[in-house]
Amino acid sequence: MNALSKISSTDPKRRLPQPCLGIDINFCRNPQCGLFTVPPDPYDRRGKNRSTVKSNQPHGKVIGSGSEKSYACGACGHHSILKNNRAIVQEYKRLRKVYVAATPKDACQNEGCCNHGKGRDAYPDLYRKSGKTANGAQRWKCKACLKSYSVGSSIRRQKRSHTNRDILWLLTNGTPISKICDFTEMSARDVYAKIDFIYDQVIDFNATRERMFEVVRWETVGRRFATDSQTLHLNWPNKRTRAQIAAQHLCTAHANSGYIMAAHLALDPDVDLPDVEAEMIAVGDFALPRAFRQQARVWPESEFKKYIDKITQKVSIHPLEAPEVDLGLQLPHRGALVRQDILQAAHAFYLRRCLGKGDERFVFVLDGDSGLALSFISAFAPRIKEGKADIAVVAFDKHKSNDQRNMIVNDGKIALELASGIGRSQWSTMPAEDAIKITDHIISQMLVGHPLDAPFDWPFHTKAEPNRKVRILTDRPEMDPDRRARLMRLATLRSVDQYFHKVRSNLRFAARPGHTPSNNGRAWDRHYLYNPGTMVKIIEIYRFVHNWMGHHKTKETPAMKLGLAKGRIYAKDLFA
Fold it and tell me: What pTM does this model have?
């Protein structure tokens, strides 16, 4: 029997991940490069005839292995870590799916009916009257499936609807779940059911109202946004595994109004982690680099343990304390933990959708996380290429004491006096517009000869952000000096940091973990949550309260400042 000759495949091997639904962020992510946004050749041409390579595609190199694979641009040499386009699209879809409005109340509620979701106002011929309910509400019957429905208050079937408002305000004003139970005389199960109901109402409200972003006049209300993240903790569920469960809370705030455009937790409570790992084994994902996998969105348990071991391998513990100390983190025991880089990219794409396709020029101020900056550069690459978006990265000393901050602020005031020749008493009485013009002029002079894309030490310190360093990633030689100076002045994270402070202060489970000598650095609090799903819901509820409701002293909510609302939203409006 003649052996079949082995024929090598003529199909070139891909060196870059496949695009997914038009999303492909694996290009040179250096805005100063001439090949920025230009898709490189996705195939490995080594050993092939170079004449077959398309001349209009940059080649560059793919170096590294595993999760460290990166694309090195052939023009500028900038390294961009390869990202899984499929995972980004999956996470983006999940974030969008959350804000899908429920079926209209005044429509057929039967999902199997052809009239499902078709409102009676738009399609009056599809329905007919069918008597009234015991409360006197009109009942309507669908002519197709003969199912009836009535339009009434969302709380009409609740027995203790008067507690909805109490639970909403207690929950968002620093009261733990156990104390809410005591105050309302309800069981924990009933309180959690109320939280589920409030969350559903909030999602329906946001899904309807936040479609109105397209009518916001960004030129009037401001085109600057600030993005940062904070770490929130869950309690470990048993004594055998006393390791922290940490999740990133990523937020983007509109700088002028304080409106929280998006707030996303790196938690997916609807995923069963053992099923994810089984699926990855079945398709052979663990044998592939992460950028080429079918599932690269959430952390599998085996890889998470290796990652924790890697980042803690140089930490030394006293031998007597070692048995009682767990330096690592652990995955939540319900749901899954979303990878940070995937969440950041999906968050940026979600924000891009909120801002629409207008001609406005936006400014994005980001925390000094390199992954976050590259995610925004990838999502807003077309705008950056057209000069319609600028990205600035900010870093400052976050761990200074109050006295140290006051000393730094005083040094900044002295520097301002020396640079301007104007005394401190004159600065305090000067109109704000004049002070801004003088400051921008001084900064523009300081920036003469300053290298592009290099950090700039802001000399006039503020208490909120002492020793601030600003780096404009989208800086370019043709940028007007006055605009460059203005970007340096406006590059601040104050709006999003203020919201994070409110979250820490007003949500009991979000308070910083307490550390004592006896707990060896481990953080456990009796008021922390155990269920990731509950954390996701409460975070979204608080975002709604901040944006639309405010508190009793609030005269103008962030939604009113943005032009999305004419007045405050009250609890009675939410539960109507």
Answer: 0.89
